Amino acid sequence: LRTSRILSRAAVRGHATIRASHARMMSSSSISDADLLSEVNDGRIGQHALEKRCGDTLQAVRVRRSFFEDKTGRSLTELPYENYNWDNVLGANCENVIGYLPLPVGVFGPLHLDGEAVTIPMATTEGCLVASANRGANAITQSGGATSIVLREGMTRSPALRAPSLQRVEQLTTWIAEPENFEKVRAAFNQSSRFANLKKIHVQAAGRTMFLRFEAFTGDAMGMNMISKGTQYALELLNTEFPDIKLVSISGNTCSDKKPSAINWILGRGKSVICEATVRADLVQTVLKTTVDDIVQANSLKNGVGSAMAGSIGGFNAHAANLVAAVYLATGQDPAQVVESANCITQMEKDENGNLVATVSMPSIEVGTVGGGTGLPAQKSMLQLLGVQGSDASNPGANARQLSRVIAGSVLCGELSLLAALASNDLVKAHMDLNRKKPADPAPGTCQV
Question: What does each C-alpha distance from 95 to 91, 184, 279, 368, 379 come to in angstroms?
């Protein structure tokens, strides 16, 4: 009975939303919200087809919300949907849209990185995270700044193939290794885009199953679509030479995309970046509230011994994923790729002058400044804040490389600050101060149970 009442109230709310919104505005569609909702409820159209049916993305979102409010008996009132350009999203970023999730965006810095002052945006709901990164940036910048290098770059896609015999496995492996043949494959691959440039093919085999890990430069795009298309072209060429070797899957998991793997940790994927800073001993004491020796010990035992005891792959760090995820959300990156992009080993060493040398090495940062979520207005503005929005026409790939450097620099700031908090036993206190709201005073005349 209670459930039926909830459903009844939700239905009233849903239809009330339709009537109110219809009274407020005239849709560009020739069909009313109420008639659209009726068509969905009657099964004449699927809710996924609302945009196509009415030709108005905002109306489609509005009607879909009402449909799911009626269907689930749950209100969507707190999920905003107005004042957003859904035309940008349609066919590019999301399907079956019912609204958007506002996320707080903070900034930290400036971080002095490679001779430039950088202000870095972070989208997060974790209190203390931005403040902590800001403390790390402060210590690094006052010490003269951080430097970074992009050691190598190349997005990967690794199809799984099935050969009829071990002899054919050997023959294909040998054939690809011949420079003349590789150039044929490269020419076919590079047809996928004017930016695509196949760099190498890493061949692995398990019995008769082969994995060809294509690695390519993809300009300022993160590059998964580009490299998948290029791989398809390359496989079509290989099929003319080896028609009896069949494609099982365009992705064979040795790429390795959106999952933990040793291959990304060892061979790299996307951008392999190292970022380093020397922090003066006096600033370790005054800004980070600890000592060089204590940070070195905390890093060695926690990030070194502790991660080894845990059997970690790529997790020899304090919280690299925190920084990667926050910058990814702010700049329109694929958040699922935080899995491999946060691969990081953090090193803390005392130099001959008694100062702290802090380093993060990140072999698989996967970022782009064009495509995907980078074209959405808010995320685009954050890339503009960093000075890396879009493609660099004069030097393709430069913007994506700079973004990868910024992410490594962000991680360095976060690692430095968290390790200092752990070394001084201030972590819990900082979170209690910055990550917990103090209860508001009760209003006069109210009863607090």
Answer: 8, 39, 47, 22, 19
Residues of the chain above pLDDT 70, percent: 88
Phi-psi region of 96 (alpha: psi -120 to 50; beta: other; left: phi over 0): left
pTM, rounded to two decimals: 0.89
354: left (phi over 0), alpha (psi -120 to 50) or beta: left
Which residues carry out catalysis? Answer: 126, 258, 334, 431
Question: Given a cut of 60, is residue 99 above it in pLDDT?
Answer: yes
Q: Can you tell me which residue has the tokens 């620099």? A: 409
What pLDDT band is residue 433 in, cutting at 50, 70 and 90? low
- Give pLDDT tens digits for 240-264: 999 999 999 999 999 999 999 999 9
Residue 311 corresponds to which tokens in the numbers above?
């059997």
d(CA 351, CA 140): 15
